[in-house]
Amino acid sequence: MKKDTSADMVSFIWEYMKLPEDVRNKVKSEMDEIHEHCRDSEFQKPDLYDIVSKEEVAGLEQSMQKIFADIITEVSSIACWVYVEKYVHHKSLQEMLAERKDVDKFIFAVDTWFEKLLGV
Length: 120
Known about the structure:
mainly alpha, 75% helix, elongated
């Protein structure tokens, strides 16, 4: 595991590893199938609880929900930052990219989206 692995991801892995081995294998198999077919419009994603009991995956589900909530919070925060920097402080895309190199691809995408959305 890398040193910079987020606490949320470590928690997710921890909960996953606490599942019985046969349950982990079932979950991994289903996730692999979902990944393989996710762009197939005919593919119906299975309900995870048809594979294993809710009790067995409760901790994993909580960890996943926290990770998703944190991702949405971070994405919203960065999008807001881009808007303020671009339209309030009138910074260029290059200035924003230089300031936040850790999320440069997302800044570029949000900047492009704002320009299309706002017709700038």
